[in-house]
Amino acid sequence: MSQDKERLPAPPAPNSYLRNWLQIALVAIRRVPKLAECHPATLIGAVIESLTAAAGDAPAHFYRTAAGAEVDLVFEGRGRKRYAVEIKRSTAPAVSKGFWTGCADLEATESIVTYLGDEPIPLGGKVRALGLRDALEWVRERVRSDG
Fold first, then answer.
1. In a domain, 6, yes or no
2. Within-domain flag for 49
3. For residue 41, what are the domain limits?
4. Helix (H, G, I), strand (E, B), or coil: what is residue 118?
5. CA–CA distance from 17 to each of 1, 43, 62 (Å)?
6. pLDDT tens across 104-136, in order?
7. Over the stretch 10-39, which tens digit does the pLDDT of each residue have?
8. CB of 93 closer than 8 Å to CB of 115
9. CA separation (Å) from 143 to 44, 58, 91, 115, 131?
């Protein structure tokens, strides 16, 4: 990562997102379409909490530059490996130029987009969209075993 890129502080500790999961549980979500109706911050907080828990002790950060490059979650692995995760509240994921730029800035080893579907979807390059269940497994396999 070049020195001229701005790195913002990491998001709050994962346990601060507990209320997001409680809110989801209280509305008794049983299907993905209902999950999509949650407030965006609630959904994103719950996904971040789940993914960081799956990563174990691996450091996790948010990345954003003044120029608009942004990655929702970056895991730091051994050997300077970085894993980028974008979180989408959609069943038809697409990523912005800012995500591609952020991945390039970070020199991400691998990247995924977590979305509300179930089927893996190739998005180009080394990036694919995964449902939350598959994204959790992806993090466990790569980040936890690497970090």
1. no
2. yes
3. 14-146
4. coil
5. 29, 10, 15
6. 999 999 999 999 888 999 998 889 999 999 999
7. 555 554 455 555 555 544 444 445 555 665
8. yes
9. 19, 7, 25, 19, 17
Residues in the chain, total: 147
CATH number of the domain where residue 90 is located: 3.40.1350
> Edge-to-edge strand order for the sheet containing 127-131?
60-64, 70-76, 82-87, 110-115, 127-131, 121-124
Would you say residue 48 lies in a domain?
A: yes
Non-local (6+) Cβ contacts of 74 within 8 A are 60, 61, 62, 63, 82, 83, 84, 85, 106, 108
Q: In angstroms, rounded to a whole number, what is the distance separating the alpha carbons of residues 142 and 77? A: 8
Instruction: Count up the domains in the chain and report the number.
Output: 1
Q: Which residue type sits at 66? A: A
Q: How far apart are the first and last CA of the chain?
A: 19
Check residue 124 and give its pLDDT: 87
Given a cut of 60, is residue 43 above it in pLDDT?
A: yes
> pTM for the complete prediction?
0.73
**Do residues 48 and 72 touch, judged by C-beta distance below 8 A?**
yes
In a domain, 75, yes or no: yes
